[in-house]
Amino acid sequence: MTAMRVFHAVADGGSFTLASDKLGLSRGMASKYVSWLEEHLGTRLLNRTTRRLALTESGADYLARVASILAQVDEAEAQAAETSREPVGTLRVSAPLAFGVRRLGPILAEFNAHYPRLTVDLLLEDRQRDMLEDGVDLTLRITTDLGQSQLVARALAPVRVVVCAAPAYLARHGTPATPAELARHRCLRYTLSEPVDEWRFGSERVKVSGPLAANNGDLLVDAARHGMGIICEPTFLLGDDLKSGRLVPLLEGYPLPEFRLYALYPHRQYLPRKVRALVDFLADHFAGEPDWDAY
């Protein structure tokens, strides 16, 4: 490998002197490495004169291959060195607002106990950021379809949605037996979903309306808890209320959209240690059925 590096440096710089200075070798030792390599390969790689060096045809072909090999070796060594170090610095993460508030605090506390030298800068918002433009290392996103995203995606957990209402609402307005009956009920709608006034049950699409629409799921859950109407929200928001009976699941025999929680990061051949640490930690944490579905 040393002989290959010396040859690459000589050919790249066009000079034994420049190559020896760059590599910290004597000029005579650099020349010996190249001569040994030529003898080993059984071909001349460089034509030498007193004034200049020139690659032979074999030398030019060998140089191209050597450059590729050395680049891969350098990348592998850098990755191995980074993997062996404890991650440090700041990890900038974005996540959906309600999910972050409800679920990420305990997870990040445990993550910090494992990686105390790593600081997490968490951005909670429901708009989709341009990760590269905003300097975000990792994005958590809940969606049914990533579309044509150029980001690397790792699925972390299923996210189910449930149609539900408070017992008090059902006592006053009745319980819908089919999705079509929702058209005559007071439905509380999440405005960041598309379309806002339509709920999907498999191939069936139902127009819904009601006294409240909002861009925050926690507010809609609270309003439903107080009997204002029927909601269709993810179980990471509803789990405790469904378990306690404050909200009652409806239309359970009908299919609803299937969402997933993803970790997204820019496409890089070698993922930074700090990003990999959090992605792997989240994957381990969410392995199996999410605790919010145990109701």
TrEMBL record:
Top-level taxon: Bacteria
Residue intervals of the HTH lysR-type domain: 1-56
Record key words, sorted: DNA-binding, Lyase, Transcription, Transcription regulation
Protein EC: 4.2.1.1
GO molecular function: carbonate dehydratase activity; DNA-binding transcription factor activity; sequence-specific DNA binding
Keyword Lyase: yes
Enzyme class (EC, first level): lyase
Family stated for the protein in its record: Belongs to the LysR transcriptional regulatory family.
Protein name stated in the entry: Transcriptional regulator, LysR family
